[in-house]
Prior knowledge:
The chain is an alpha/beta fold. It has one domain (5-129): Vaccinia Virus protein VP39 (Rossmann fold). Helix content is 34%, strand content 15%. The radius of gyration is 14 Å and the shape is globular.
Amino acid sequence: MAQNIYDQPDFFAGYSQLGRSIEGLDGAAEWPALRAMLPDLDGLRIVDLGCGFGWFCRWAREHGASHVLGLDLSEKMLARARAVGPDTGISYERADLDQLSLPQDSFSLAYSSLALHYVEDVARLFRTVH
Ligand SMILES: C[S@@+](CC[C@H](N)C(=O)[O-])C[C@H]1O[C@@H](n2cnc3c(N)ncnc32)[C@H](O)[C@@H]1O
């Protein structure tokens, strides 16, 4: 199992104070560049690798995605994401990106922000996503 620092109470408390945790995508420095790379999301099935508090999952739904699967290792991050409220078009699941398997042909877009640097074998993850 990969290291799971986000479930450590002190780390989680500190992370929760960051601008990106409070303001969401508008508080994330990389968001304008990432957003500019996104295709039209209308009707897409999306997987968010290391979804954290689920800000992108919700944004994607608001911008037309038919379903978003948010995956994260941290129960605390997932609990915060789920607490925002139910959306039948979003599922949050616990998964270790280092051990990930995905059903064939299930997603048309894989998204990830500030999570891949935690992955030990990123080549394996990319093969799985591909
Ligand atoms: C910096 S946060 C980014 C969260 C979100 N993508 C965002 O941009 O706000 C990194 C996230 O990656 C998750 N993470 C780290 N290692 C992971 C792993 N091996 N598998 C799944 N998620 C992981 C953490 O739990 C955390 O939620």
